[in-house]
Specification:
single chain, about 160 residues, alpha/beta, five-stranded mixed β-sheet, globular
Length: about 160
């Protein structure tokens, strides 16, 4: 029991500093997956970032789940952004055809944004406020994490 507590404390104390802020410029400079996806002019209260790749097995499960969440929560206050980490655009497009989402799709093939954030696991989900401050993040995806995501979205966003 003491080992579990010590491990938990160690993990909490080793959260990376990236968890505080995302560079708006790095994010806005990412090219679109299918063509140029201009960053929206509209100001959003929240931004949901989903980092994924075609080779990522859990990403195949998270994509339809997050698309469902987008339909529940809408896009009046929330900008939904999927950021692909594939170096081969054709693999990303094949994945997108098989697991379509209506997010703003951006690509980070050189992992510039992901590395600046310390992202070492996919998928990675981040929720930002309108000033690009990270409010919450989740590493990985599984059936158990669906409830965690739903609960956290309710906590952050209020009612759909």
């Amino acid at each position: 029991m003491i080992r579990k507590i010590l491990f938990s404390l160690l993990m909490m104390s080793s959260l990376p500093t990236w968890a505080e802020q995302v560079s708006p410029q790095l994010l806005r400079d990412l090219p679109g997956l299918q063509s140029t996806s201009p960053w929206p002019e509209k100001k959003y209260q929240y931004i949901v970032l989903d980092f994924w790749a075609s080779w990522c097995a859990p990403c195949k499960e998270s994509a339809p789940f997050l698309e469902k969440q987008k339909k529940i929560w809408g896009e009046n206050r929330i900008l939904w952004v999927a950021i692909n980490e594939d170096s081969d655009l054709s693999q990303a497009l094949a994945f997108f055809r098989e697991h379509p989402t209506t997010f703003l799709h951006l690509q980070d093939p050189n992992r510039k944004l992901a590395e600046s954030l310390g992202i070492d696991t996919l998928p990675r989900l981040l929720v930002l406020d309108h000033k690009f401050k990270v409010l919450w993040h989740l590493r990985g995806f599984s059936e158990d994490k669906k409830k965690v995501i739903e609960d956290q979205f309710r906590k952050l966003f209020g009612k759909p």
